[in-house]
Amino acid sequence: MKILVFGATGSQQFNVIGEAKKKGAEVIAATSSEKSFEKLKKAGAIPILADMSDADKMQKITKDIDATAFMVPVSLPNPLDGLQYAKNVIDAAKANGVKKIVWNTSGWLAPQKIGIPGEDVKLDIKDYLKNSGLDYVIIEPTIYMENMMGPFCAPFVKNEKKLAYPTPEAMPIGWIASRDVSTFVVEAIYNTQLKADTFQISGLENLRGNDLAEQFSKGVGENIMYYTQPSKEFGDILKPLVGEAAASGVAAFYTSLQEATEYPPKFNPNMSDVLEKLPVQMTSLEQWAKENKGYFFN
User: Fold this and answer.
1) pLDDT tens for each residue of 44-102
2) How far is the C-alpha of 244 from the C-alpha of 294, rounded, in Å?
3) Which terminal Cβ of the chain has fewer Cβ within 10 Å, N or C?
4) 213 domain-assigned
């Protein structure tokens, strides 16, 4: 099995390399920067220089590929360009006879467009993929545990003993580890019975803010309190990382959450059904925090 992976330099897709290697796959990891080659080689992948915006390059690197695992970059100056990026990958997969394509959506998809370009474009990508004629699986993960490693959260943990996140304390979330998401992606590739399937995945614990802080505290061995971060503060910290357009869109989303009286679901109570089709050993929040204690308290 030869698998082409996009986004493997980031935390959301990096573990696809290791999980695919466990299955005996040959992994080709596309990156837009040669600076990432060493990291990808150490993980066991064959790095290749390619940008998703280059349709011709997508056609070339997809020759002889059995399966593609992709996600759209979250830091595009114009989030709507993500549709063309996805089209280039999907078209190349179709033209080259790729047997399956798996899309990590980097979050649960909204039921309809909500006025946030980075989220709305995902619905267009979904339609394009579904109509491509390819065998596909869509993996929709809830909020990543690794988000807590971001500069909007980690410094607060270390310096103020606060777990900062812009979701209201009362909003329950089934946080999920990126390693688990990557395992779902690989299991989806190898399950030949899945040909046009979508899975909303979450962790197995549905945690409100204070519950999150409690489990995190157990893992790191420190008393950490939950802090509902103002969406503007969050957006200002995020802006240098993902660009103004993406940061503004995300901040607007969290503003709407903080003003809401009802919250969108971020937990799948039927994960047992998902795990029957995609067997994954799930990571608890406490376990994840324990494994990553050194990142927060070095």
Assistant:
1) 999 999 999 999 999 999 999 999 999 998 878 888 999 999 999 999 999 999 999 99
2) 31
3) C
4) no
